[in-house]
Amino acid sequence: MNYPKLIIKPNIIEENVKSIVSLCSKNNIKVAGVTKGVCANKEIVKAYISGGVEYLADSRIENLINLKEYDIPKMMLRLPMISEVDLIVQYANISLNSELDTVKALSKAALNKNIAHKIILMLDLGDLREGIFDKKDIYKFIEEVLELPCIELIGIGTNLTCFGGLIPDTKILDQLGVISTSIENKYNLNIDIISGGNSSTIYLLSNGNHLQINNLRLGESLLLGKETSYGTQIKGTRDDGFLLQTEIIEIKKKPTVPIGNIGVDAFGKKPCFEDKGIRKKILCAIGKQDVKIDSLTPIDSDLNILGGSSDHLIIDGDDSTKDYKVGDILEFKLGYGGVLSAMTSNYVKKLIIE
Ligand SMILES: *Cc1c(COP(=O)(O)O)cnc(C)c1O
């Protein structure tokens, strides 16, 4: 039972981290290495740390708990649930917040345990996921937070692109600089961290812009070297730190269009088929329960992925010059969704290669 298998090469990821940390530090930006896409896998976390990230960041407290042995500040990325505040203050040094009730609960939990908890106030600059949207609400929030014991407001931040697809630009990010200065002046405090988003902000650095931010929370760019606004490869990085191997379980000549009336597939979608006649179809033992199929790119570029069901991947192998046999292994590169899903699936074996 060796397949499906995800091959992980931490050395490649470490090189990616070094290149990106260096690009960021030229712009006075510190990097929080986001581990959620790899379920906080420790070999990858070690690559992040030796590559030079300043923080480890994750959306799930389970992952941060797992990382407690690493002596580096931890950041909770998803707004905390009130039901988990005890764990947050214990295992995260910093959390991103936008709700006063949650920060009050964090304060109570931190006071109970007698620890200081740092928060970054999230602002919604138009992507419409988390963050205070109405700028008037910022000051009321801060005034209440400043009264709370064991809570330290250390920064402001925003998240872009993830929900609304909003591409960062200097005009959007400059708002953070303006707001930060106005908070500092009004309350006579230091806003140490201005966190300007995720991997979608990187392209602005490559373009030589001066940004009013000093922190980025990066996942996809470190893992795959991709900036996510335009999907281009960042200089000095590679996208082959992960490789998926699957085993062929059937090879047969079959028509390209199903025979009979077509209803909906196993996932409720009505499939469409282009009639290309009889083709060599290859079936692999991996499916949507394991990996995001549309995130896979076959290494043999003459293979064409037709689709998948929960446990099967269906490939048109007719254009390939290779003479595949049942039991052979096919290899694929993965996009971010592919890495995230394969890392999360218990059915996909993980093999670290140094
Ligand atoms: C996931 C996440 C990130 C990292 O996003 P990438 O596109 O992988 O760099 C950053 N910030 C927050 C709040 C996130 O949830």
UniProtKB/TrEMBL annotation:
Cofactor(s) needed by this chain: pyridoxal 5'-phosphate
CC per GO annotation: cytosol
Alanine racemase N-terminal domain span: 11-222
Matching SUPFAM superfamilies: PLP-binding barrel
Highest rank taxon of the organism: Bacteria
Cited Gene3D superfamilies: Alanine racemase (3.20.20.10)
InterPro entries per the UniProt record, alphabetical: Ala_racemase, Ala_racemase_N, PLP-binding_barrel
Signal peptide: none
Keyword tags: Isomerase, Pyridoxal phosphate
Protein name: Alanine/ornithine racemase family PLP-dependent enzyme
Species the sequence originates in: Wansuia hejianensis
